[in-house]
Amino acid sequence: MNNRFGIIQGRLIKPPSNDLLQFFPPNWIDEINIAKTFKFGFIEFFKDRYFNQVCPFFTNEGFKIVLDVLNLKNFKSYSFCDDFFIKKNILKYKFLKKYFEDISFNLSVIKTKLYVLPLYEKSNLDKKNFIKFSKKINFISSILNKKNIVLALETDLEVEFIDSLFKRIKSKNVYLVYDTGNRVKKGINQFKEILDLKDKIIHIHIKDKNLLGNNVIIGRGIVNFKNIFFALKKINYKNNFTFETNRGLDPIKTMIQNIKFIKKASRLVKYKIN
Known about the structure:
Structural class: alpha/beta
Number of helices: 8
Helix content: 25-40%
Strand order of the largest sheet: 1-2-3-4-5-6-7-10
Strand content: 15-25%
Low-confidence stretches: none
Distance between the termini: 8 Å
Number of strands: 10
Largest sheet: 8 strands, parallel, barrel
CATH class: Alpha Beta
CATH architecture: Alpha-Beta Barrel
Order of helices and strands: EHEHEHEHEHEHEEEHEH
């Protein structure tokens, strides 16, 4: 692949159960070696929803360990996905200022440029609460901006309400992650959606889902990747991609097939990814 592509942490490692999709690998250092064999430019590190002693991203010391490993492996950190607020209501979280001061400092230590904030479940962003969220987003982005970190929101919110949300956001360091799987819905034209969101999209999560909403191996779901890449070509998208994909029975073999599939889909519409 090339340095525009990375993988979400844990997707090159076989988990204890195939039903476990988001999985922080105990051997996360080994995964960096595997990622380098694929010539990925980065691993999108993530913080677990609950405290996990093998996850280094819960402590300052853990971040320092990550920095040492990155330097040793000559590997870069680009993006960080924070799942913590999936199980915590970010609108009611009492220690928000301290939390984001700490994490922005630690992300700057490992030279992370993009902070991905998934707004689902306990922190679900919808058309009823987006005004309340806009205040929190302004507050969070102001803290991240002090460390030159971009805030990238991941949400299922409809385009019209995303537009309304962004009109209320004063910060210029707030954008969207477009997740190809999470945003595929019955009746939604993803080609048009990407065109409508063009100025707001700063990062892409590559994922496929079936009609039941399950994350499946790329090419077996309902996402039309040819249309996705055609839309990205239209908006002249030149930023990065993260594979947030189903591992299948063999994560390495599945990733090889994923890369072949994505290269073919992009070539069909003459979208340059290399």
